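Model it.
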Amino acid sequence: MKTPPAIVVQIVHIFGPHKGNIQEFTNDTITIGRHPSCHVRFPADLTAVSRKHAEIVREGNRFKILDKNSTNGTYINGKKVSEAFLKDGDVIAFAETGPKVSFLTQMQESRVVAEQPLGTPESKQPAAAPVPEPETEEVPIGNVRMPLVVQYGPTLRSFKELPIVIGKGSRSDLVLPHEALCDRHVQIFFWQGRYYVKDLTGQRAVRINQSPIGVQAPLNPDDELSLSPQGPTFRFLGEGRLMEVEHPDREEERSAAGKEHQAKQESTPGASDSKPSPSLFKRFFQ
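Modeled.
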C-alpha cells in the first residue's frame, strides 16, 4: 500500500555561522537554539541566540513557529512574533540582528531524512564534480507542472511550472540585473524525470562544473551551474532546487576587473562612473 506523502522541511541558512548550509527534517517538531539537544544548533558562544530559542511545530499540513521565551526574540520577515504560521520563502531571524534562515517545504513520497545537527557544518560540495553529459540531440521542451526553487541572496523564488527563462531583460521569468547576462540568458525545463538547462546566448556562456554545455544539458545533484564566467553561479541540490554559491577567487577576479574598469574611466575624458546594479533580490529585502 502506498504511504501518504511526507512533508520535508528545509532550513536554508542565509546569514550567520552556518551560512550556505541546508538541513532537512521530517520531524513534527524542530527545535532551535544553542542547547546540544536542538535539531538546529548554534555555537555555544553565540549568546544572541537562547539555549532553547524557538521551535517549529507541524499542525496538519502547516507549520507554526513558536518563540520559547527567548531573550532576544524571533522575527519573521523582520517582524517580531511569539508564534506564527510559516509559508515557503519566509525569512526567520533568531534575534533582530542574529542568524537568519529561509523556510521551505516540499511534498514527496515518505522517506527517512537524516537529522543533521549543525555542531560542525559540513560542506555539500562534492569531492569531484561530474562532467555534464553530452547531448547528441536536443531534448523537446514543453510546459509541465514541476517545481523550481531558486535561492539568490537572502530570498527564495518559487515556480510551479516549467520551463522558465532567466535573464536580465523584463521578458524573462526570473530577472537578474547582472551585467554579464543577456536579456534572455538561460532556460530551465523538465523532461522525462530530469531537470535540464538550455543556453540561450548562442555564445557557449553557460557552464556546468566549468564545462560549456553547448546547447543544453541535464542537471545532476551537486552540479555547479555558472550562467557566465563572471557569474552568477548556483549549485543544483536536486528536486528542483538551485542555491547561489560564491567563490572567493571569483570575487577577487571581479575586484580586479572593477579596478581595471575604473582606471579606463579615469583615463577617458568625459567618461562617467558606472556601477553594476545591485541584485534584485537583495534590493527586495532591504
